[in-house]
Amino acid sequence: MGIINRITKRTLQGEMSRTLLTIFSMAIAATLVVATLVGFTSGQDSLYHAELKKTGGMQFVIRDVPRQKAAKLRQNAAVEKSLVFANLGRFTLPKAQGVTDPTTKTPELVAMDQTALTQLAKPLLVSGRVPRNHTELIVPTDLATKKSLLGRSLTLQTAHGEQRFTVVGTMYGYQQFARAYRWITANSTRSAATPTVHVAGSLTYIKRLRSQVAALADQAGVRPRQTNIIYNENALTIIGAGADLINKAALTGFLALVLTVIGLAAGIMIYTSINLGVWARIRRYGLLRSLGATPQQIRQLVYREGIALILPALAIGYLAALTGLAGVMAFLNRRFATAGMTDMHLVLSLHPWPLLGSALFMLLITFLASARPAARAARVAPLAAVRDNLTAPHLRARQLRPSVWQRLMPTPWGQLAAKNYRRNSGTRWTMITALTVSIVIFIGFTSFIRTALQSTTITYGTGIDVSTTLVNRTDTAPLQQLATLKNVKEAAAVQVSTIQLAQRPQGFSDIYLNLLVVPPAVFARYFDNQMTLLNRAVTTVSASGQHQESWVFPQTDPPSSLIIDRHTTLPVAQMIKANTPMLRAIASDRGGLVISQAQYARLRKGRSKTMTPVSETVFMLRLRDLKKHRSTAAQVQEILSAPYIYDRIAENQTNDSFILAAQVIVYSFLALLSLVSLANIIDHIFANLLQRRGELAMLQSIGTTPAQVTRMLGLEHGRLLLISLFWGSVLGAALSYALQRQIGSIYELTFVPPWSEIAAVALVLLTVWLVFAGVSYRLVRKQNIDHWLRLT
Amino acid sequence: MAILTAQELTKQYSGEEQPALNHANLAIEAGEFVAIVGPSGSGKSTLLHLLGGVDKPTSGTVHLYDTNVFELNETQLAIFRRRQVGLIYQFYNLLPVLTVQENITLPADLDGRKVPADELAELLEILGLTDKVQSLPSELSGGQQQRVAIGRALVNHPAIVLADEPTGNLDKRNSQEIMDLLRAANTKRGQTLVVITHDPEIAAQADRVMTITDGRLTGGGDDGHH
Fold first, then answer.
1. Based on the domain organization, do A503 and A450 belong to the same domain?
2. Which of A22, A201, A725, A751 has a CA between 20 and 30 Å from the CA of residue A268?
3. Entry's Pfam families (chain A) (predicted)?
């Protein structure tokens, strides 16, 4: 072991309590870094694989690969797994069937074997089953049709003539990746003879995925144009391999911001610790310089001290972070399972780069944080070994003048505290700056995240249990079937049209009014077969962050009639408040006039300009037994063949789980960040105390009691903590405000001063101050005065 | 032949009216034992630190052999100090975290040189520290600590050893033992030695005595007389 290493090791061993405190502080920072990087990549991996499951694990589809080249493509070493399905060509839908595909007039029909059907089609199935033979068909859910297609026969006009299929299943139509296979049948002899096939695949290595896939397509004779290769963007975006560069930049930017915050907190802590060490050892550096140590060797001494501290801290950090992450993931996985989120399963991913990156990041932070103290140490003159005046602070005349505080202090030790405070400006400002930055980070980020998380817990829903919106479908007949389901307590349907009034009634906000068109059963049950003005409450957020409720229509004196034009006036029989989940759901966002379907049909005649047609139907259900929500929702989906069913209970469970996951992650992050800041404060204060033991011994030797010395130290540090608290609170609140303003327009966040965070910081600082006073008193009372005087 | 010469060496501290050292000239021959005497604050230590390259003058030069010490950069100066100069302080200035042996070999270690075992054993024997090699400075008496400092000054066979009041913190018996050691290094090893002292008895043991008063050096030997 070289002399530099030996001196470093012995120095750290000689100050074991402080060394351990610093290692502990650094370990918290290391835990934060490892947990952030490993947690981030694990989360990415888990979400990526959950998303990939929906497409049978496939990352891309290369379309129209010549059949003879497909096998070679699939055998390429870069391809981890693949599936192939036949392209049966494009077709048109005869008009008489009343079905159109909103994405194209000439959709493409594909044929799959059972493996491809199971992997690609089944995960996206909304209702029904996958085809068993070439006469059966799966269709996308986003088709424009008046009635459910499930079980119906459809004729497709193909290049080989008309072909009849039976629709046996509907598949989620909004999946971007599935635009390569929206209309699917099972393989047949014809599909085995198509000149081209589509190849879905996944690569062994994700790096440079797009160029790898493009090369594969090129080799297979497919020009790698945008339309020829479809990527699973939903999955790839999660791991930063998506085509959307803005998304990728946002992901990188977010990670960079988090690492900057951690780096700042860790850097300040390490800088403070190393810097105090350098201040305490200036004489020693002077001696070494006088004995022939070069500035480079002195610099190495400081850097190696940083490295010697960070290495064990990193080991502890890895252990704590990985154990903590595993624990948090196990907890969240249990929660996801309870919420029925079967796709969601967090797995701890141990990729080399986040593991190695954490170490490199901490080493870099240590190196950067040690740079200034190291340069300071290297500048120490050899003469500092023997000349006290080189290590003592250079005081200006201003610093020697008594301050206001000093004059106000009634006791000698109070006056001495004021003098010390004023005359140790170098270390004082380092400490105030470090503390202030720590407090700014804590208050700024904690209050911002708390406000953001609070906004996610506000529920804006109607309270309806199950609902679905069928776009382009105006048939309300299935309502009867829904109402007869065993677990359904109430069922309703509504269609919304907008009508322009001839004049704005008093208290109305505009002349456009929603017409809430309901089937006869609903009109009778909820509205006594009378045209009813359904008033809806809306919640707004005030400037002070309070949620306020107001009503769309004036609550008193509703209009008795509404003038549509010269010939038509609609009588308003009553106005009721939408104060039950079902009425709220019928009222939609803005309330309106409830009319029957027959009234709507009469009203619509000749009013194509002043009235919009109904284009979608919303079905709403309240359940008897909420625990059976899943099976009822499945029944509703089956009956309506709906692309999406809103299941409030499942949604709440999912939301609660995600909010919980976000809270666990964010609060763990903040807790660790706060601990780093706290460790910094403790390290700073106690290092300062240990450094001044000789001075304290001298005060004791001339008759100052331990209590008086403690009061003097308490006054010095109390003032320092108060100043840091003040500036930290002001700047922290400003940071929180800036962050909330940045995203406030998107998430409707309103700035609320971070009083609770300021109070928490004040409480922590008060605790630290009290503990410090206790420790100081004990230390001063028990210290060997003679020993410390000799060392001085 | 003079190995160390100082010409017109002046040191003026900022804020002080009088220079701490005023146009000092001296020449020290190889193997010579020189004592510099003078009252407190006369500039003795300043002169010593300038000769050892620990401090820099306001004006003037110091040559060791043909090297102008103050033309060296920081790194060269550090190497110069550890190879050519042995410094002994009044308050020992040992590193408390290093053992006796480690303190002695420190200049060699800083130089990346390993002290041969027999050479080290001989030095420890001379210093009377053979049984204390693993002790820490805090476990030694003042006299023993100063012996360690002497060992540290001698370990690299420097061109010159500069001792600043080496006995100033010791009792009479220990003082004489330290002086015997330094004298032995001078006579047996031919070590050139400059000792600062205000003790006439110690000064009397030197080959030559220079006097410094108010920064002015007399008997510097630059004019050739001893």
1. no
2. A751
3. FtsX
CATH of the domain at B46: 3.40.50.300
Q: What is the 3-state secondary structure (H, E, C) of A602-634?
A: HHHCCCCCCECCCCEEEEEEEECCHHHHHHHHH
pLDDT digits over A237-276, tens only?
A: 888 887 777 777 888 888 888 889 889 888 988 888 888 8
- Identify whether A602 is part of a domain: yes
Confidence bin at A170 (pLDDT 50/70/90): confident
Summarize the confidence of residues A488-503 as an average pLDDT. 92
Q: Does B110 touch chain A (CB under 8 A)?
A: yes
What is the total count of domains within chain B?
1
Judgement on whether residues A456 and A517 belong to the same structural domain of the protein: no
Residue A355 included in any domain: no
Same domain as A221, residue A90? yes
Asked whether residue A784 is domain-assigned, the answer is yes
Helical (H) or strand (E) element with A84: strand A79-92
**A174 and A95 assigned to the same domain:** yes
Write out the DSSP string of A532-572: EEEE-EEEEE-TTS-EEEEESS-SSS--SEEE-SSS-EEE-
Same-domain check for residues A456 and A506: no
- CB of B78 within 8 Å of any CB in chain A? yes
Average pLDDT per consecutive 10 residues, chain B (226 residues; last block may be shorter)? 91 87 93 91 90 92 92 91 90 88 92 92 92 91 91 92 88 87 89 90 90 85 45
A389 contacts chain B (CB < 8 A): no
Residue A293: which of B83, B91, B110 has the nearest Cβ?
B110
Which residues sit opposite A516 in a β-bridge? A496, A594
Residue A36 lies in a domain: no
Interface contact B49, partner A, CB < 8 A: yes
Domain count along chain A:
3
Q: Which residues of chain B are within 8 Å of residue A385 when distances are taken between CB atoms?
A: 89, 93
CB contact under 8 A, B52 and A383: no
In the prediction, which pLDDT does A651 show?
83
Q: Check CB contact under 8 Å for A291 and B45.
A: no
| Residue A763, domain extent | 424-460+647-792
Contact A755, A465 (CB under 8 A): no
User: What is the rounded distance in angstroms from the CA atom of residue A268 to the CA atom of residue A253?
Assistant: 22
Q: Which domain holds residue B16?
A: 2-218
What is the spatial distance between Cα A267 and Cα A365, in angstroms, rounded to a whole number?
6
First to last CA, chain B: 13
- Of the candidates A185, A200, A231, which is a domain's last residue? A231
| pTM of the full structure | 0.76
How far is Cα A518 from Cα A530, in angstroms, rounded to an integer?
11
Establish if B170 belongs to a structural domain.
yes
Same-domain check for residues A597 and A697: no
Which of B54, B93, B95 lies closest to A7 in CB terms? B95
Q: Are residues A452 and A484 in the same domain?
A: no
Do A663 and A769 belong together in one domain? yes
Give the end of a domain, one of A231, A262, A291.
A231
Rounded to an integer, the average pLDDT of A529-542 is 83
Over residues A553-571, the pLDDT tens digits come to 888 888 888 888 888 888 8
Check if A256 contacts B (Cβ < 8 Å): no
Which residues lie across from A201 on neighbouring strands? A60, A82
Which chain A residues touch B89 with a CB distance below 8 Å? 385-386
User: What is the pLDDT at residue A339?
Assistant: 80
CA atoms of B59 and B63, how far apart (whole Å): 13
Tell me, yes or no, if A375 comes closer than 8 A to chain B by beta carbon: no
What is the three-class DSSP state of A710?
helix
Please tell me the predicted confidence (pLDDT) of residue B224.
39
Q: Does B199 touch chain A (CB under 8 A)?
A: no
Helices (H) and strands (E) in chain B, counts: 7, 10
CB contact (8 A) between residue B75 and residue A3: no
